[in-house]
Amino acid sequence: MHKIYGSLTVPHFSRLVLVPSRIPDCNRKNENVISLYLILDAGLHNKSLHLIAHDPSTNTIVVAHQGTNSKNILSILNDVNIFHVELDKSIFKQSAKKVEVHEGFQNTFRHTSSIVLTEVKKALIQYKSQSVLLTGHSLGAAVAVLDAIMLRENLDSSVKQSVVVFGLPRMGNEHWAKFVDSTIGSEFIRVTDRKDPVVDLPPRLLDYYHPAGEIHIEDVDKTGQATKIVACPGQENKHCAEGNSIFKDHTSDHLGPYFNDISFGQDACKMKSS
């Protein structure tokens, strides 16, 4: 498993997509990503904001997807189209039988999948890189996971891939969870924050399951620093987010803070005034 403390800069990458093509004003929290070289900016009018960048400090290609606010993601997860559909075999040719995912997540992924695959391949050659980092928050986390499986099928096995996502909802059925574990399990971390209700949706009653790889933030101090972080072995560990009571969930926890006072949402990373 990844050393989680080696992944503490990842929330910066994930949040940076909120203001692509610009230097966001996130106080001093954003200093370690200002040196990113932007390869692709989806633009503010794209349905699914994302960016692809090169991190010269680690020679890594970074793919980040924008999330959505808590109210919107709860609407998506409780929509009438909540039932899952078969994973798109035209993209995921190695998909196992009976693997199904949330239709809305797969549709959002399709908007950007082709360009992500093309640009990542080009960037790996251009920068002579052997490393890809995929990240996102909320809906963006779900898209990043689908990206990761697509890239693992299409990139050389020598390319090291890290997948670190935040506030990931359940994405598919039990066959999906097992497919994620077998495909990117050794590369995958999903971070859950305290009493976030989004990570427990859609409900297991509708045959939705999380893959393994959970890291759970149990407590945060007044400065936004995570004071207790635990590893959660296996799928749906009842000692972590799966054990939360629906009567004590806090929707605001979905936005963070994660680790070093990093929160998501439109107000978390504003534009610098010129």
UniProtKB/TrEMBL annotation:
Fungal lipase-type domain span: 62-204
A family per Pfam: Lipase_3
Gene Ontology molecular function: hydrolase activity
Protein name in the entry: Alpha beta-hydrolase
Alphabetical list of InterPro entries matching this protein: AB_hydrolase_fold, Fungal_lipase-type, Sec_MonoDiacylglyc_Lipase
Entry keyword set: Disulfide bond, Hydrolase
GO BP annotations listed: lipid metabolic process
Record's catalysed reaction(s): a diacylglycerol + H2O = a monoacylglycerol + a fatty acid + H(+); a monoacylglycerol + H2O = glycerol + a fatty acid + H(+)
Family note: Belongs to the AB hydrolase superfamily. Lipase family. Class 3 subfamily.
